[in-house]
Amino acid sequence: MDFKFDFQEDYVVKEIIKKKCKKVLLQLPEGLKMEGSRLANYFENKTSAEIVVSGEPCWGACDLALDEAKKLEVDILIHYGHAPFIKRVDFPVLYVEMNDLRSIDKLLNLSLKTLNKYNSLGLVCSVQHKHQLEQAKKFFEDHGKKVIIPEKKGYAHYDGHVVGCEYNSLKTITNEVDAFVVIGNRFHSLGAAIAVENPVYLLDIYNNEIIEMSKYKDKIIKQRYAAIEKCKDAKKVGIIVGTKPGQKFGSFKVIKDKFRKLGKEVIVITMNEINSDKLTNFRDINCFVELACPRIAIEDYGRYDKTLITFRESLVVLGDMSWEDLLKNGLI
User: What value does the CA radius of gyration of the chain take, rounded to a whole number of Å?
Assistant: First the structure.
């Protein structure tokens, strides 16, 4: 792929020198790990620091390689591709956000026909496109639209910024806009679609198309309903506590005893990375509730042979929340 991201190499070099770092751990998201060799060589040639590249999966700013950094005794973790997410980190981290340098001019013009029926739009983006938010806002306003960029909430670092598990800013303006527009990729736009009832449109930078997300949302909703119903029938439930620093959603203490009162056998399990092989090892367990990233259960439904639900979905199983309330408030 011909990358058009700004890796900010010179900025990183200056920070390494300024902080007098002798050993650095470099962490890249999955799609950019092939840049690890180039970046490590560049930084070592420009500084006196030793650069080590993390080979472990990285799915977001919630997935900081803090344990690796501490074990390697590096001076700093340089985390590429995301904005700060975890509020308190007991280790030096340099976030390199990487603006996407692709032009959105053609895509904005292409979107006019699709968005013509809406008078007001909520406008958000992934962090790679935050530098293009004001451009998009002005474009739509120049074409007669009312545009709102919602104020940041929760884990979002900027106004109009969405991450995989954080769409509360959209929920604050659902009554003020007809539809939402997401600049970025399908992952974030699907998250937005299942978080709010308004129509959601993706301005897909990478495929140069406008995508209405309702059919993808409908598919997810059917899958989630089926998963919840399967868990209601399960005799044994595994509650997975994620050990990644930024992936802690819900408490097993809240639901463990309640499942037992329903007559289910319960076991609490820790996992750093959830995958099908790990779940299969627990052959006697019918259903798992994962308290890590909610998108693990929602996004990767087809990858698991076992039933996997989120903390909020477990509240539906337990009768603490109705399915209708879950949909109304958003799956995420």
Answer: 21
